[in-house]
Design goal:
This protein is α+β, with helices and mostly antiparallel strands and 139 residues long. The protein contains 2 helices and 10 strands. This is Glyoxalase.
């Protein structure tokens, strides 16, 4: 049985910087595109950046584990080593983090590595990883 994949469309200010960020920095392959949108393979999921400058990057925030987390964000749960490889690559490229890579809920159910960053349009992304994936929905 195949695992379902999600589809997410999100607004961006323009496509050139979006393409460089998702393809070159994050390593996402590209799919179909036009002058108004571009498909990305986001770790097996289809995300589509649509040009809509007036809607890009707007979000409130909530406190989680002592950090101000953007309420509107998307991301992916990576394998432990892949998370740390991505964190290293982002740090090597001088990415500014909203929340730098750290271990959240340390010693508690759902302990996870997490980091938040913004794409060039101000859209928030979260990447996380669990040492024990059975803890993803732990309470």
């Amino acid at each position: 049985m195949s695992i379902p994949r999600f589809h997410l469309a999100f607004p961006v200010k323009e496509l050139e910087k979006t393409l460089i960020f998702y393809r070159d920095l994050l390593g996402c392959k590209t799919g179909r595109s036009s002058e108004k949108w571009i498909d990305f393979d986001f770790w097996g999921h289809q995300v589509v950046a649509h040009v809509s400058p007036q809607d890009a990057g707007k979000s409130a925030s909530n406190e989680v584990d002592g950090h101000s987390v953007p309420a509107k964000h998307f991301g992916v749960i990576l394998e432990w080593d892949e998370f740390h490889e991505l964190a290293d690559r982002l740090q090597d490229n001088d990415v500014t983090f909203v929340i730098e890579p750290y271990i959240r809920f340390k010693g508690e159910p759902g302990e996870q590595a997490t980091m938040f960053l913004l794409d060039p349009s101000g859209n928030a992304l979260e990447f996380k990883s669990f040492r024990d994936e059975s803890q993803i929905f732990a309470v």
